[in-house]
Design goal:
globular, OB fold (Dihydrolipoamide Acetyltransferase, E2P), seven-stranded antiparallel beta sheet, 4% helix, single chain, mainly beta
Length: 274
């Protein structure tokens, strides 16, 4: 896994840094695990634009990812590591011993031919999924459930990992990638290791066109708009001053938007670093 810096043969290549696809072993997805994916262009069911700066982009197929890992005790062999256009991480195709196939998020160090297994009897090795009550303290984990059997919700993007720091009664204490420390029920499952493709954060698109391929349209700043369009618009010349805020008037820097009585606040031991 690495990155490629291109020679400046054109203006678009000059600052381009892209991921290397050397770990990818298959170019076409497993047909039984994909479906068509419609893009909305930011429009709702009546064609009204509800999200700005969305549209275009390359067609994608959605790959069904097994976030639950509910086939306990059945070993699965890693058949291939594949690219997924819908997420920053790579995905791995598993062939189970009973003949079933599924995709999982590929952790760092997972290789073709390796065997992974899930369930409380599984060993705490890379790619295995087990309840946190059975995971040793200090282990690096990802794909963490918030409720038992719900499926992984936390720590799924490229290069991300959390750490199981301790256990208190029915709860496991987790250090999240943001720096937040929180309690999660120890019966919830997590996968051992960190998410692969850790060099994703070093990539640079190099040109505006690559954003268009991803379905992102040009984003114009509020300060260049007219007063009717944005709270920061208007004024003679380049007007400065006033508080940075959104189109709807919410302060853009420093305003706390978390609900003060949110039920999950009691599980947070230490808030994320500012």
């Amino acid at each position: 896994m690495g990155i490629r810096k291109l020679k400046p043969t054109t203006p678009g290549q000059r600052h381009k840094v892209i991921g290397a696809f050397d770990t990818i072993t298959a170019s076409t997805p497993e047909k039984s695990l994909v479906t068509g994916k419609r893009s909305t262009g930011g429009r709702n069911n009546s064609g009204q634009m509800t999200m700005r700066y969305i549209g275009g982009g390359h067609k994608r197929k959605y790959r069904f990812i097994d976030f639950k890992r509910s086939k306990d005790g059945i070993p699965a062999t890693v058949k291939s590591i594949e690219y997924d256009p819908n997420r920053t991480s790579r995905i791995a195709l598993l062939y189970y011993a009973d003949g079933e196939k599924s995709y999982i998020i590929a952790p760092n160090g997972l290789e073709v031919g390796q065997t992974v297994v899930s369930g409380s009897e599984a060993a705490p090795e890379v790619g295995n999924t087990l309840p946190m009550v059975n995971i040793p303290i200090g282990t690096i984990i990802h794909n963490i459930e918030l409720r038992p059997g719900q499926g992984a919700k936390l720590v799924r993007s490229a290069g991300a990992f959390a750490q199981l720091t301790s256990k208190e009664g029915n709860y496991a204490i987790i250090k999240m990638p943001s720096g937040e420390t929180r309690k999660i029920l120890a019966a919830c499952k997590a996968t051992i290791g960190s998410v692969g493709n850790s060099d994703h954060g070093l990539e640079k698109s190099g040109k505006a066109g690559r954003s268009r391929w991803l379905g992102r349209r040009p984003h114009n700043r509020g300060v260049v708009m007219n007063p009717v369009d944005h709270p920061m618009g208007g004024g003679e010349g380049r007007a400065s001053g006033g508080h940075p805020r959104s189109r709807t008037g919410l302060y853009a820097k420093g305003l706390k938007t978390r609900a003060p009585k949110k039920h999950s606040s009691k599980y947070i031991i230490e808030r994320r670093k500012k």
